Structure formats: C-alpha cells, structure tokens
Amino acid sequence: SRYFTINDFPQGTPGRELFELRETELPALAEGEVRIRNTWLSVDPYMRGRMSGVKTYIDPFVLGEPLEGAAVGEVIESRDARLSVGDRVRHMAGWRDIAQLPGDQVEPLPGIDVPEQAYLGVLGMPGMTAWTGLNRVAEMQAGDNVLVSAASGAVGSLAVQLAKARGGTVVGIAGSPEKLAWLESHGIEAVSYRDRDAGQLTEALQAACPEGFDIYYENVGGICLEAALNTLRTGGRIAVCGMITRYNAEGPTPGPGNLAMVLIRRLRMQGFIVFDHWADYPRFLDEVGPLVASGEIDYAETIEEGLERTPEAFLALFEGANTGKMLVRL
Ligand code: NDP
C-alpha cells in the first residue's frame, strides 16, 4: 500500500514538501477486516485543521501515520461476512491506494443511480453539510433570499441550488470568471469578491439583491462576512459552516468591524458541525438523491489524476482552483 503522511504540523500555508509518500507491506487480513482498492479520494478544507496539531472537534492527524479522509473503492479481499469482493464502499482510510480496516468502519454505497464519486461530494459529507446548514441551522423558509460564499464549491454549489428551489433570490460569492459563469448558468446571481474590499463587495451584493438577505450561508469569513452583515435583513440568520480565509492563518485574525450589525439587525449566527447531524443522513439521501439522479440538481467536479497528486489537490482548495468537489481519481 502507498500512503501519504506528514512529519510535522505546518504553520501558515503548507507547501508540497510537507507531504511524504510512503510504501508499506500490508499484513494478512485479520478476522473482521477488509481490503479495499480505493478508486476516488476526497480532499477537504477541514483536513487543514487536522494538520495543526491541536484537537478541535476532531483529533489531529498522527505524524508519520497514514493521513485519513473519505474515500470510495472496491473490496478486493474480505474477512467480514457482511462484505464481499467486488462491493463498492465508502470509508475514511483515504490518502492511500489500498486500504485495510475493520469491516464495521466501511459502508456499502447506497443504491442511487449516480457515479460512485458523488458519495464524496453532492451526496456525501459536503452535500449533507449544505442541506443541514440551510434546513437545520438557518431554518430556510420558502421565498427566503439566500447569500452563499464559496458558492461554486462542493458545499456551496448544492446550497445555492437547494435555496434556489425554494423560490427566493439566491446570490453566490465566488472567485473566478469560470465559477461565476457556472453559478449564472444555474440561475444564481454571481458576485466576485476578487479585487474588492468589504465596502465594494457590500455594494455589489446590494445591487444583486436590493431587498436584502434572510440567510447568509458562511463558508469563508473575512470580507465576505463583513459584507454579508451589511446586507442581511432584520431577523436574518447566519449558518456558520466554514471560515476558510483563516485556516492557513499564522495567528489571530481580526473579526468583522461591523459585528454590531448582529445587534442592530437582531441577527442569529450559529455554527455547526455536520457530524452532529449525521443521524439525518438517510433523510438527506431520500430527499436529494433522486434530484441528483434525475439531473434536477447538478454538480461539478474538479479531478486530479493519481495518488501522487493528492497533496496538490488538497493545496489547490486554498487557491480556489476547484469548481465543485475536488477529487483525486486513482
Ligand atoms: P470548496 O469546494 O468550497 O473549496 C474551497 C473554496 O473556498 C475554494 O474553491 C475557494 O473558492 C474558496 N476559498 C479558498 N480560500 C479562500 C479565501 N482566502 N477567500 C475566499 N474564498 C476562499 O470546499 P468545501 O465545499 O468542501 O467546503 C466549503 C466550506 O465549508 C469550508 O470552509 C469548509 O471548511 C466548510 N465545511 C464545514 C463543514 C461543517 O461541518 N461545518 C463540513 C464541510 C465543509 P473561490 O475561488 O470561490 O474563492
């Protein structure tokens, strides 16, 4: 098995040299274990937190050990009666080509008619996150005007479509012309944050939705949060899903200068972690799975080829190189 590890907890933006590709001979399967040939690996922004050496809501990676992350693959050997050779499964032993782990940590893929990598994106953890943030945290109602940052990413691209289907004005903030075009082609008003300060972004958002937003789906922080606070209506809700602007920060980052808007506009701001809501995953799949299978909900993917490219795929998330879900195909 070939796997990636890190030997140090980086400060600031990690470089490619942080990641070391190693090889190991796997032992024979123990009773209850399965061996899986991974076909798709997920890289996700939260992994940066696991490289910081401190426990947040999840333990840090163990230095020198294989990194972890969501992956799908095919069972190639099994000593678990519930799993057979050829089964397509999802599990957390990513960042490697061959995974070996107890069968009870492996989940057969649901039987919805979608490509298997969709279970790492639109029908996996990121999709579940979008659905949870809108429905459970922001308590979206039909007709709500919704603002989403990192709107063409894995989470954001589902959030904007779910919001749009409920009838309000939906505005997405994204970085590049291609991403803005992707949003516009899905009926979303698209606004760039590039080369703008918080005041200019506020003006662009006001132009896109003059009556103001009921909900801000927060993925980014920084000027996006500041501009959102200026453009929420009284009683608005902020679902704090992510704050990617600060994941590579080396020290404390300043908060928005207009936080008093929370008071003035009686806003509710609530963070959430999707794992706390995982009991709802079957309900999410029932609701969103058929819409993805029928094409009513679209999704995009950005794919790196080969295990060797996994660090590049991960690092590119922080450069905004992905439209939709960032994946590695093995
Ligand atoms: P994305 O697919 O959205 O990829 C990250 C995107 O973030 C980039 O493509 C880029 O888009 C944007 N970005 C990166 N750096 C910056 C920056 N400095 N300023 C502004 N935008 C930036 O990732 P995911 O969909 O997987 O995750 C989105 C967010 O959701 C993340 O913050 C993540 O941590 C969070 N999350 C939270 C979960 C939870 O349980 N709370 C679960 C899953 C994800 P662009 O080019 O448009 O700037």
Sequence-ordered SSE layout with sheet pairings:
Layout: E1 2-6, E2 19-23, E3 33-42, H1 46-50, E4 71-78, E5 88-91, E6 98-102, E7 107-108, H2 125-137, E8 146-148, H3 154-165, E9 170-174, H4 177-184, E10 189-192, H5 198-208, E11 213-218, H6 222-231, E12 232-240, H7 261-264, E13 268-271, H8 281-293, E14 301-305, H9 310-316, E15 325-329
Parallel strand pairs: 8-9, 8-11, 9-10, 11-12, 12-13, 14-15
Antiparallel strand pairs: 1-2, 3-4, 3-6, 3-15, 4-5, 5-7
Domain Enoyl reductase (ER): 15-328
Keywords: Oxidoreductase
Protein name: NADP-dependent oxidoreductase
What does this molecule look like?
Strand 8 (146-148), helix 3 and strand 9 (170-174) form a beta-alpha-beta unit. This protein is 25% helix and 24% strand. Helix 2 packs across helix 3 and helix 5 (198-208) packs across helix 6 (222-231). The chain has nine helices and 15 strands. The longest helix is centred in the middle third of the chain and has 13 residues, at 125-137. The mean pLDDT is 98. The strands form three sheets. Strands 3, 4, 5, 6, 7, 14 and 15 form a seven-stranded mixed β-sheet that branches. A six-stranded parallel β-sheet has the order 10-9-8-11-12-13, with helices on both faces. It folds into two domains: 2-121 and 299-329, Medium-chain alcohol dehydrogenases, catalytic domain (Quinone Oxidoreductase, Chain A, domain 1, Alpha-Beta Complex), CATH 3.90.180; 125-275, Rossmann fold (3-Layer(aba) Sandwich), CATH 3.40.50. The chain has 330 residues and is α/β, with parallel strands linked by helices. The structure holds NADPH dihydro-nicotinamide-adenine-dinucleotide phosphate. NADPH dihydro-nicotinamide-adenine-dinucleotide phosphate binds next to helix 2 and helix 3. Residues 15-328 form the Enoyl reductase (ER) domain. InterPro entries: ADH-like_C, ADH_N_2, ER, GroES-like_sf, MDR_fam, NAD(P)-bd_dom_sf. Keywords: Oxidoreductase.
